[in-house]
Fold ADP-L-glycero-D-manno-heptose-6-epimerase.
Amino acid sequence: MIIVTGAAGFIGSQLIHKLNEENYNYIIAVDKFDNEIKNKNLEGLKIKEKVDRDNLMEWLDVNYEEVEFIYHIGAKTDTTLFDIELLERLNTNYTKEVWKRSVKYQIPMVYASSAATYGLGEHGYDDDENHISELKPLNPYGQSKQDFDVWALAQKEKPFFWAGLKFFNVYGPNEYHKGRMASVIWHAYNQINKTGEMKLFRSHNPEFKDGEQQRDFVYVKDVVDVCYWLMHHRTNSGIYNLGSGKARTFLDLTKAVFAAMGKEENISFIDTPEDIRDKYQYFTEANMEKLRSIGYSKKFHELEDGVNKYVQGHLSKLSL
């Protein structure tokens, strides 16, 4: 059996889809399952059992002998949330409990970290573990992920295989429930569909022109391919970046959405909301050399290709 936490969420549900494609059908899906909209992500997937998030540790203590692998993808991912206690409980401390059982029962695990740990990028975007403790996240969500990464590296007892994946800007199917935290592709498609135009955040940094803020956008199918590969290559534990390795502008992204929709470009700018303005990353780009160095060789989608697949293969077929 394979455990996937955050099973009903964006990346978790896509990972289960990938596992099913590869004929792994004994999936233990872990989530709260209290969001009917999000639960639609699980429709049609092969799952052996659903376990409430709050009951996972007790379930593991009973069923550990049957578990082959743990994917701990679930987390509170709202970068605008400032409830530090909640983030510490659900992201940092919960992951520690999963880790401890992974050690105790000798179950390999992959867990979700985040590029939010890099903050302004003053130390670059290199996943060298010797420098991870120096990173300065810009928000409590990023700090909750950073706190666990630092804790994990400091542990004397580690799972016989483990990998922490610093997800960059992931986009793709099954993110429709995420609201404000959904990708810009999702928001662009909806806005263009309704109004014929897209409003991007204006730059409040003199080093970047409007719309030329850059992020490392990575297609969710590439993310789950890496997760799946790691289950079969359990020799190099550690923390790894997981992005496309290529920063692109929000203008590039928006133009790709217009093109995929077959519509004429109509782009304007609005002020970045004040509650996130001073916590805003203007540039992210994953250094992917470390993952490549352990043998991962599959190419990542170019932004235009991923956006086209997402828009034409999924968004255009939804009733929004």
The two ends are 35 Å apart (CA to CA). Residues 84-104 form the longest helix (21 residues).
